[in-house]
C-alpha cells in the first residue's frame, strides 16, 4: 500500500478544484490512485476546514461548512487577495461577501432566538408558579372537604343516624 506525502495529496486535490474541475474518477484514472482513497482525502480536507468540492458542481450548492470555511479563510484578505483566492477556487468575490452577510444574519437570528427563548422561559416559569399555587390551593380545599366528610360520618355514627336516611 503506497504512502503519499501531504504535498502530493494537496497537489492531487487541487485537480478537483477550479479551473480544472476534474471529477474524482477522472483524477483517480489519471493519477493511478484508487477512487476510495481520493474520496477519503477529500473528506479529510473538508474536516480540516479546507474548501473542496462536494458532490455538487456549483459553489452555490456547497455545504454550509464549506461556505463558512471560505468566509473564515478570506476574512483578513484584501480585495486583490480575495480576487486571487476566488479565481483559484472558481468563485466570485460577490459570492463570498454574500456568504459573509448570511453568516452575520445567522448570528443575528441566533441572538433573536436566544432572546425569544429567554422570554419564553420566563413566561413558562410564571405559568408554572401560578399553576403550582393553584394546585396547592386545590389540595388544601380537597383536604378540607375530605376532613369535613370524615367528621360528618363520625357525627352521624355518633348520633346513630344512617347516612342514607336523609
Describe the structure.
72% of the residues lie in helices and 0% in strands. By secondary structure, the protein is mainly α. It folds into two domains: 6-91, no CATH class; 101-165. The radius of gyration is 35 Å and the shape is elongated. The termini are far apart.
Please tag this protein with its features.
mainly alpha, 166 residues, 6 helices
Strand content: under 5%
Number of domains: 2
Mean model confidence by pLDDT: 84
Radius of gyration from CA coordinates:
35 Å
Structural class: mainly alpha
Number of DSSP-assigned strands? 0
State the helical fraction.
over 70%
Can you tell me the residue ranges where pLDDT is under 50 for at least 5 consecutive residues?
Answer: none
Number of helices: 6
Element order: H for helix, E for strand: HHHHHH
The main sheet comes to: none
Quote the distance from N terminus to C terminus. Answer: 99 Å
What form results from the Cα inertia axes?
A: elongated
Topology at a glance:
Layout (H helix, E strand, L loop, with lengths): L5 H9 L9 H8 L3 H13 L16 H11 L4 H11 L3 H67 L7
Helix pairs in contact: 4-6
What is the gist of this entry?
The chain has helices at residues 6-14, 24-31, 35-47, 64-74, 79-89, 93-159. With 166 residues, the protein is mainly α.
Amino acid at each position: 500500500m503506497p504512502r503519499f506525502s501531504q504535498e502530493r495529496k494537496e497537489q492531487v486535490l487541487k485537480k478537483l478544484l477550479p479551473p480544472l474541475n476534474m471529477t474524482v474518477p477522472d483524477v483517480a484514472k489519471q493519477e493511478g490512485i484508487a477512487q476510495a482513497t481520493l474520496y477519503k482525502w477529500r473528506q479529510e480536507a473538508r474536516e480540516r476546514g479546507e474548501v473542496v468540492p462536494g458532490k455538487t458542481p456549483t459553489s452555490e450548492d456547497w455545504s454550509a461548512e464549506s461556505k463558512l470555511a471560505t468566509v473564515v479563510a478570506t476574512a483578513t484578505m484584501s480585495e486583490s487577495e480575495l480576487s486571487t483566492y476566488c479565481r483559484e477556487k472558481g468563485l466570485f468575490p460577490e459570492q463570498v461577501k454574500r456568504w459573509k452577510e448570511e453568516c452575520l444574519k445567522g448570528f443575528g437570528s441566533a441572538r433573536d432566538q436566544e432572546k425569544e427563548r429567554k422570554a419564553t422561559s420566563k413566561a413558562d416559569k410564571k405559568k408554572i408558579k401560578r399553576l403550582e399555587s393553584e394546585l396547592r390551593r386545590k389540595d388544601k380545599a380537597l383536604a378540607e372537604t375530605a376532613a369535613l366528610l370524615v367528621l360528618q360520618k363520625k357525627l352521624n355514627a355518633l348520633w346513630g343516624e344512617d347516612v342514607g336516611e336523609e
